[in-house]
Amino acid sequence: SGETSFGGCLAFDPLEYKQPVLVSGTDGVGTKSEIAFELGKYDTIGIDLVAANVDDIAAQGAKPLFFLDYVAVGIMDPDVMEQIVRGVTQGCLLAEVPLIGGEMSDHRGLIEPGHFDLSGTAVGVVERSKIRPQNVSDGDVIIGIDSPNIRANGFTLVRDIFVGKNAKAPRDLNSPAFKGADISLGDALIEPSVIYSSTMQKIYLDEQAGDILEGVHACAHITGGGIVNNVSRILPSNLDAQITRGTWEIPEIFNEIAREGNVAPSEMEKVFNLGIGYAIVANESSVAKIEEIIATSGRKSYRIGKIASGTGKVHLSDK
């Protein structure tokens, strides 16, 4: 890899694939950047940026090839820029993807001093025959991988509740995140996203080695829209996903948001992932191996539901 005067370059061996397909994704960190501004802490928001992009393309089976970032600021502050880029670099190391270029743009007059907008693009590659979803079947198990924090979704609602003049339940970001918490609310909100792509690559690698081969039928990155809206994107029109509440742990920060903001459970399920950052649909014989790989990667997994005949919808029910 390398950078020319006008663009980043990366060479990869297409002969590793019979029919290589490039998969791209572009996304930002949204209003979580405002929490970074309020705290004056900018060194983790780049991890959120990388996660938002590489985890999207991993859901289609792609291995990330390279990453690009873009930051627009009100007034260029070298220290803030260094912290942001440090976070992006750390995210790329966690995702095992090279950062081959980026852009910083001074938008004074359009963006208030101290504020910024951060976005990025990931490009990956997948064998055409391995693109997901595929072969989702009646009786498949839905495995959820834990998300211990909010990641980078739902922060417009979070800020409406806790931050600003018109906040419903204004809070000092240095106060405890919730009763009995050993971290502050600010630290709980700015905690960086889990990056799932590297775990998914281990699962796909085992697949190629023949261990679970065609076992993984579909994956969903649980972002804005929650479990229902994201899992529905990978369902064929003749199958439903039956997901059971109470089969996984909901981090306490979500309960605090619901309590303080008086947010209805149905709204919480639409806005947040509520503790499940990634969902894998797999045949039952592959589940134990997938769970083993997830555990080895340092994450928790839960069997949160099953695939059944239906009309392409996701149903949430109580245990």
Largest sheet: 6 strands, mixed
> How many alpha or pi helices?
10
Morphology: globular
Radius of gyration: 20 Å
Annotation, overall tally of beta strands: 12
Side-by-side strand order of the widest sheet = 8-10-7-11-9-12
Secondary-structure class: alpha+beta
Strand content: 25-35%
* Helix share bin: 25-40%
* Mean pLDDT reading: 94
**Distance, first to last CA:** 50 Å
Low-confidence stretches: none
Task: Describe the structure using short key phrases.
319 residues, alpha+beta, six-stranded mixed sheet, four-stranded mixed sheet, 10 helices, 31% helix, globular
Would you spell out the secondary-structure blueprint of this structure?
Elements: E1 2-3, E2 8-9, E3 20-28, H1 32-39, H2 45-58, E4 63-73, H3 78-95, E5 99-106, E6 116-127, E7 141-146, H4 155-162, H5 185-190, H6 197-208, E8 216-221, H7 226-231, E9 239-244, H8 252-261, H9 265-271, E10 276-282, H10 287-296, E11 301-309, E12 314-317
Parallel strand pairs: 4-5, 9-12
Antiparallel strand pairs: 1-2, 3-6, 4-6, 7-10, 7-11, 8-10, 9-11
Helix pairs in contact: 2-3
What does this entry look like structurally?
This protein is α+β, with helices and mostly antiparallel strands and 319 residues long. The chain has 10 helices and 12 strands. It has helices at 32-39, 45-58, 78-95, 155-162, 185-190, 197-208, 226-231, 252-261, 265-271, 287-296, and strands spanning 2-3, 8-9, 20-28, 63-73, 99-106, 116-127, 141-146, 216-221, 239-244, 276-282, 301-309, 314-317. The strands form 3 sheets. It has a 6-stranded mixed beta sheet. Strands 3-6-4-5 form a 4-stranded mixed beta sheet, covered by helices on one side. The longest helix is centred in the N-terminal third of the chain and has 18 residues, at 78-95. The protein is globular and about 55 Å long.
